[in-house]
Specification:
The chain is an alpha/beta fold and 191 residues long. It is 37% helix and 20% strand. The strands form two sheets. A five-stranded parallel β-sheet has the order 2-1-3-6-7, with helices on both faces. A hairpin with an 8-residue loop joins strand 4 and strand 5. The longest helix has 16 residues, at 174-189. The chain is globular and about 55 Å long.
């Protein structure tokens, strides 16, 4: 059964290993799923949510398309580089600007827990890093995955969120990259 899959290349650079992995995921999944790719580097928008959630800030056309794509998708794949232990600022800005009240969640006056408006979606998070993954997960605390899973995606209603760790990318060999690309292809084949 075909699924609507949104692949998000979360690296703001125009060329990156994240883009290669996103393309690899698409190639492995396109024959059986309806796929969309959004690359962060192609999006033009004001990164800051200047008034927080108190004011209104018009969405640029790229952000409207991003929201429409999230609503369209049944499964979302985030391919994210880990920079300084976290996600790139532009990716965080994309989340801040689009996962808004009345789009991703809604407080209905019945307590502190909001209604989750993006229910029914699943996600894969593919994290690339120059740190060894075991060190990132167990010694640095796995911050990007925890933020995505617990405080963004689950908060908005996503379920079945998996993580795949790729690294260290810096100084990796082609043999290692081939292994990671097979890992991503296998992940895509399961959707």
């Amino acid at each position: 059964m075909s699924k609507k899959v949104l692949v998000i290349n979360g690296n703001p650079k125009s060329t990156s290993y994240c883009r290669e992995l996103a393309d690899n995921y698409i190639a492995a999944s396109a024959s059986k799923n309806d796929i969309r790719l959004i690359s962060l580097n192609d999006l033009r928008f004001e990164v800051d949510l200047t008034d927080g959630f108190k004011g209104s800030q018009d969405l640029e056309p790229d952000l409207v398309y991003f929201q429409q794509s999230i609503l369209w998708a049944e499964h979302v794949v985030f391919v994210v580089p880990v920079w300084w232990g976290g996600m790139p600022a532009k990716l965080k800005g994309l989340i801040d600007r689009t996962f808004l009240p009345d789009f991703a969640f809604k407080y209905n006056g019945k307590g502190a827990i909001p209604e989750k408006l993006l229910q029914g979606r699943t996600a894969d998070i593919i994290l690339t890093m120059d740190t060894p993954p075991f060190y990132y997960r167990w010694f640095q605390g796995n911050p990007v995955y925890k933020q995505f899973k617990r405080t963004i995606l689950e908060f908005c209603g996503f379920k079945q969120i998996s993580a795949t760790y790729i690294g260290p990318v810096m100084n990796s060999t082609q043999v290692q990259r081939d292994k990671w690309e097979r890992l991503v292809s296998n992940l895509a084949a399961k959707v």
